Structure formats: C-alpha cells, structure tokens
Amino acid sequence: MEDPKTDSQGIPEKIETLGTQQAKDILPPSPPPTDGSVSDADDENVEIPLPPPTTIPTQTLDVDLKTPDSHVPRDPRLIRLTGVHPFNVEAPLTALFNEGFLTSPELFYVRNHGAVPQVQDQDIIDWEFTVEGLVEKPITISLKQLMTEYEQVTYPITLVCAGNRRKEQNMVRKSKGFSWGAAGLSTALFTGVIMSEVIKRAKPKRKAKYVCMEGADKLPNGYYGTSVKLNWVMDPNRGFMLAYKMNGETLRPDHGKPLRAVIPGQIGGRSVKWLKKLILTEAPSDNWYHIYDNRVLPTMVSPEESANNPKWWTDDRYAIYDLSPNSAICYPQHEEQLCLTGATSTYCAKGYAYSGGGRRITRVEVTLDKGKTWRLAGITYAEDRYREVERDLFGGKIDMSWRETCFCWCFWSIDLPTSEIAAAKDIFVRAMDESMNVQPRDMYWSVLGMMNNPWFRVTITLEGDYLRFEHPTQPALMPGGWMERVKKAGGNLANGFWGEKLEGEEQVVSSDEQAGEVPMVKEGLKNPITIDELRKHDDEKAPWFVVKGEVYDGTAFLDEHPGGAQSIISAAGLDSTDEFMAIHSETAKAMMPKYHVGSLDDAAKTALTVGETEPDQNASPAETFLNSKAWKKAVLHGKKIVSWDTRIFTYKLEHPTQRLGLPVGQHLMVRLRDPVTREAVIRSYTPISEIDDQGYMEMLVKVYFANASGKGGKMSLAMDALPIGHFIEMKGPIGKFEYVGNGKCLIQGKEKFVRTFIMICGGSGITPIYQVFRAVIRNPEDKTKCIIFDGNRLFEDILCKEELDALATDNGHRCTILHTLTRAPDDWAGLRGRITGELVRSNSSRTDDALALICGPEAMEKTMHKALLQQGWTDDQLMFF
Ligand code: MTE
C-alpha cells in the first residue's frame, strides 16, 4: 500500500511556502510556489497548510491539438470523462488525496461546458467585467482596478462539482450526465476580492434580489451563466469572492483565467469562470445553463418526462445551491490488497468529507456490518489552521478568525482491527454536518444524477491470504468497481441491499431493463451502408458516425451539440458505440432517430469492429489465435530495435502450439486504449512472422515520432511505449484479398488466377507485399512472377531488405526487386525518385493475368491508381491494401 504523503493532520509533510516578495506580487504571471517561508507574520509559529509542489504544464497534449483547446497545456494524469473535448476531468482519487489539503492546479478537477477562452498574459490586467442590471451606478471594472482599488483576501476553498460520484447513479440507471467518480472536488487558496465590495459600489436598487453571472465562453445555448441570491452575496459569512489567483499563481486557463467567481459552500456550477458580467435582477437567471443544469428533480421524473415537460426545469425549488454532506473512502484504495500474513493488527482507513452552506462536518462514522453498528472516526480540519493567523499570503489577507463557516473538505481516519476487516464484507462511511444532515443509506436517483451522497461503500473479498478492496465504480468508461460486478452478475443495484441477492427474491430485473431501451433508429428505414460510404463522411463538413451498427448523420446537429461540434467531428467515420452509450442520456438517445440514415452492412461492421463478443473464458484455447468477432489479448514478449524508428514486436499467443490463423495477404486489427482518455486506437497490420509459426507472432512497425510537421503516429507511438508483459488486443483476419498459392487468389471470396504480381509499395506498405512475395517464392512449384517496386526516402528506410534479397537469391527468373529512393546517398546504384507510372510501365507489362498489389501512403496509392488506369489497367486488376 502506498502511504498518503500527509501527516496525521492531513497536512502535506513537506510544507512549501512562498517568499514575501513573491507572495505580494499580485500582478500576473506569477511563478509557482517553490520554497522559502512566510516571514512577515507575527504569528509565525502557526503553520498553515500551503500548496503542494506544482509543475505548470507547458506543452499541449497530443489529444488536445485538434480541439479548440489546443492553446491549453494540461496534465496527462487527469481522467477525461467526456472523451477528448470539452475538457471534463478528475484526478485519480488516490493522487488527489495524497496531495493533501490543497490540490495543485494541474490536478484540480475541471468542468468545462465548451472551449476555454484564450487570454494572453499581457492582456490579463486589462480584462474587464461589468456590474449592471438593477443598480444605481452600473460600472465596468478592469482586473487592474480590482487588484488595486479593493481589499485583497486569500481563502482556502473547496470546489465540488454537483456531479461528484455520479457514476454510481449511472450504474443504477443512466442519468443525463457523464460519469464522475469520487474525485470531482478540489481545494485551493483563492486570492481576490469579496464580491459584495464590488456590488456595493454599484449601489443595488431595492428590487434587486439575485446576482446573475456570465462567463466569456460562448456555448451552443449562449454564454455560460447562472445566479445566486443577492442577500447571500452580501453576507460576509458566506465569503463569495471574485478570484484571479489560485494557490498563489494566476488562474490557469481551465480554471477561469483571468477572473472567476468563487462561491464557497455551494456546488461548483455557481462559480462562474472567465467572468464578464454581474447582473442584478429581480428573478433568478434565465440563462439556459442555469435552467437546464444543476438541479435535482424529483426521483420519479424520468428523462422523457423531463424532456417533454418544461415545468420541471423552471421550478426553482429543484435548483441546487448548497452542497449536502458527503464523504468517500480513499484508503483502502480501489483494488488495494491487504496480505493477512504478517499484517499489522490494525488498518488505518481514511478519506474525505464535506458539507455545504458553510456547515462543519461534525461526525464521520464507519460500519463493518452494513449499518448495524457504527464507529466514530477522527476528523482533522486543516481549514481551522488559517483561523489562527492574520497575515498576507499571495497578495491577499488571510482573515478568518472571526468567521465560523467551513468552506473546505476535512479528512477522517480510523484504525480498524485487521481481524474485523477480514471478517467483514464491506466498509461504509457516512458523514453528518452541524445541522444534523446525515448522508442517506439509499441513493436518491434523479434525472441529472446530481448530489449523489449515499453511504460510500468499499467491498472486501477474501482471496486466499489476501483481502481485496473494491470501490463502487471507476470514473468515466473505466471498467471496475463492485457496482459493475454486481450488475454483470444480474444483481439489482436498486434493491436496497446494494444488489446483493435477498432470500426469497425471485428474478432480478435491473432498473435499466425496467426502463426499457430507448429506440434510436428511424422506424421502417432500411438502408444498408457500406464501409466506403461511411468513410466518405469521415470529415468535418458532413460527419457520419456509428452507434451499435446504425449510421447517423451529425451534420444538422453540429451547431446544437451541447459539447460543441468537435465532439461529433471527432467521431466521424468511427464506431462510437462505447463512448456514445456511456456518455449520453436517454433524452439524447431519443433524439437519434432524427439523424439515423441507415445500417452498416456486414462487411462494414466487421471492418469497424462493432458487434464484438467476448471470447468464452472457459473454452479451451483454439488452434488458431485470431477471431474475427472478438478482440483477443496478445502479450508483448519482446522488442527488437531494427533502426531508430523501426521495431519488430514479438507477441505471445495463448499457448505454445497455437498458430496465428491469418491467411496470406490478409491483415489483422490491433487495438490499444489511450491510458488517459480510454479512447481506443485501432489500426490494421500485417505480421512478418510466418503463418505457420507457433506460440508467437512478429510485427514490423515503423514508429512515426512527432516532429515539426506533425504530432506523430498515435498507434505506433503507443505500441512503442507499451512495456514488455503488457497486452494489446487483436482481431481478424480482415481484407478482401487472399493468396492461396500457385497463382490462385481469392478476391472478395472469388477465385482468380494470376501469372504476374506487380507489387508496388512505399515505407511500411512492404509488410503485406512481403507476405505474398514470400509465399510465392518459398514454394518452388509456384510459377507466378513477382515484380516489386519499393519506394523509400533514405536507404535506411528500406524495410525487410535483407529478407527480400535472401528470397530473391537463386530466384532471379521468378522475381525482380526494384528499390527507389527519393533521398539516395551518392553511392546508391539503384533507382532514384518516387515510383511513377512510367517506372512501372517500363519495367513490367500489363497482361490480363496480371494483378497489381499496392500498399503505401495515400498520396502514392492515388497517383498509382490514376497512372495505371491510364495505362489500360482496370480496377479489378488493382488491389489496394
Ligand atoms: N463557468 C463557465 N464560464 N463555464 C463553465 O463551463 N462550469 C461550472 C463552473 N463555472 C463552468 C463555469 C461548473 S459546472 C463547475 S463544477 C465549475 O465551474 C468547475 O470549476 P473548475 O473547472 O475550475 O474546477
């Protein structure tokens, strides 16, 4: 078990403080906290928690390059909850907890409804916002004025997304929200100005009751905006502020650079980022995001009912403001194992708790017997340390001694006897606040899946000598958690007993099934769609995408999509079943028939890898490895560096005598998941190992590294980064061509006899060509002739040269191999330049029994296609891999 790097008070062991000058430097950009000490305080013996060490990300991640957020450098550890864009992320729960009381900005959760507004450092202090509406003196204030004309304060504040722990709700029944784990919260020291000071200067009129806020992010339904009550803003105990610094540095772009509202004690949705307007009104905000977001509708309101009846959304009683009490177990971690042999007599369980409206968490209780008996955990309130000091920090005054409200999370811990944990089935935690609000035993499911706060349960399973712990879920699409396990086993998570089978219980029907599947296709539409048709719409103008084998045209929805057009464009031409089903609500699904254009034909389904089935785990391993319907796992066994950018990867099959099962001329698909985004990357490859090799297979892969002209090859980079012993997934065979031998080919299942192969390839396009060539030459009976045209840039780029030469030796009458280089060395005796139609024409002749096999970069394939047609070749004589 990894120990959290906090002391018993929940304070990071190594306290990093800022130098005085640095702390006073309020003008951006300010450097990250390093070391030094707070020296200007007369209460310097009191240690206050200061931010953990931070590293400001400087490079945009590859995944963000094609999105509107390409200007925002981010930390790759964050778990993306809504695909690549918009950016909605949480840190791994253990990483968040281990940071201690304050979270470094790069690990702080992010909830962005759309693209991040771009603000240059030099423009920050000129950023303006207005105070308008029901005020005597409407004003426009620049950030510079805010920093210089008002009193500056620094407060520790925990922000919590109302969706924190929503994945648990989605496991019970899909809500209209994406799947947050239990790390949708973070804490920072915010520096800025008390909001009421600014409002007072504008002199609110008597009728003003609400303060509406608006950000600079333009979304499909207008600018992001919401409102809070004016009397809350004016209440000093509530600490509403306008902040421009977070942990002593300028706000990072994802967190509202350069200015945001920070509303302590309330859901994060009220803390408007990139703040442009404060508007005083008589009624709550009519902003689309205020009305259709951040509500807990009554539990019986289904997604359909909420979509059909607007009254649910405009009833302000269902809007959420104050947070409710909540807690989570951080240790034991998900999938932590505790070895009973040699274990200490107690295990220290720990985690976090928070409540809303400034209410203090007054007790945290833990049970090992499903709530029959409870034990009291110890609580540390790191926030209270700041009440003991009065000093300046990061250019703002810490002045909290007079205020009793709690704005931050607290940490609880309890020593549990190991023997009692071993005898238990689960550990639950629940918290209570000073108003005696206690977390409920049962989940309150609602359409938006917000404010989920039932007792947090970690299951315990005895496996041999080990105890294995499982959290309820893992965020986003990440598999794992006891809820998923229980559901797969047919348990009903809504049965009041966490899906455990009850005595006398007959059949268990999950509430998903009760709710029925929402139809997503146009009634009566029968329009088979080929893979080529789909690929024609693999662009941003008219993007088509596939969900469960059905094809949808996203063009008309580009402007309206709540996540922005980019989310649809990213799915163009792809099977997005996993992502779509996991992220979208039943309301979104109900809209799908409108965009339905047809169904993929069978060949297209195979090509797109939909309809995959898990192989039967109990079946004895097959004679051949590949399965065209299921992804199979092959473990990376070895890696040979052939050149600076070329590798031969060896993968281990399921058993030592197993063959790959790939006919000559066909390919297989390889799938890897991006560890950060869980996005699947799929490419097809042809192995270079012999088809009859047993137990192993080898693949020659050219690694496309990032350089000035591009970000590199996603798949080849991921394959290169995979450690030995880790698996990749394969599926196949695929391809419309197969070489049977002695000139016999199968093209889309039809026989064809060939006397001459014209083989044209570039770069790693040699691999399928090499398979066929080797099959021809290895067989002395095979009279088929092969002429290979192999184009490369440099001599060292020529792949499989030795193997090709070895096969050609003594077989000159059956084959010719022509290499041509575009950047040949002076002593190169071979051909120079690209492969052209003329080169092919002058070194081969078109006959009716010739077949051209072509594999290379798209541009080369296009050029050859055109040139060969001009020379009298017909399309059925050309085979593009
Ligand atoms: N402000 C703007 N302008 N746009 C947004 O998308 N998201 C809100 C809030 N403020 C949002 C916004 C929500 S729902 C949350 S939970 C918090 O910002 C998240 O703040 P963070 O991303 O800094 O953690």
From TrEMBL:
Q: Name one GO biological process term.
A: sulfur compound metabolic process
Q: How is the cofactor bound?
A: Binds 1 Mo-molybdopterin (Mo-MPT) cofactor per subunit.
Q: Which organism is it from?
A: Exophiala xenobiotica
Q: Does the keyword Metal-binding apply?
A: yes
Q: Which reaction does it catalyse?
A: nitrite + NADP(+) + H2O = nitrate + NADPH + H(+)
**UniProt protein name:** Nitrate reductase
Please tell me where Mo-molybdopterin binds in this chain: C161
Gene Ontology terms for molecular function:
heme binding; molybdenum ion binding; molybdopterin cofactor binding; nitrate reductase (NADPH) activity; sulfite oxidase activity
Domain (FAD-binding FR-type) ranges: 629-740
Q: Where is the Cytochrome b5 heme-binding domain?
A: 526-601
- State the UniProt keywords alphabetically: Disulfide bond, FAD, Flavoprotein, Heme, Iron, Membrane, Metal-binding, Molybdenum, NADP, Nitrate assimilation, Oxidoreductase, Transmembrane, Transmembrane helix
According to its UniProt entry, the function of this protein is described as: Nitrate reductase is a key enzyme involved in the first step of nitrate assimilation in plants, fungi and bacteria.
Q: Which cofactor does it need?
A: heme; FAD; Mo-molybdopterin
Q: Where are the transmembrane segments?
A: 178-199
UniProt keyword Zinc-finger, yes or no: no
CDD domains tied to this protein: cyt_b5_reduct_like
Which residue ranges are recorded for the region named Disordered?
A: 1-64
What InterPro entries does this protein map onto? Cbr1-like_FAD-bd_dom, Cyt_B5-like_heme/steroid-bd, Cyt_B5-like_heme/steroid_sf, Cyt_B5_heme-BS, FAD-bd_FR_type, Flavoprot_Pyr_Nucl_cyt_Rdtase, FNR_nucleotide-bd, Ig_E-set
State whether it acts alone or in a complex, and with which partners, per the record.
Homodimer.
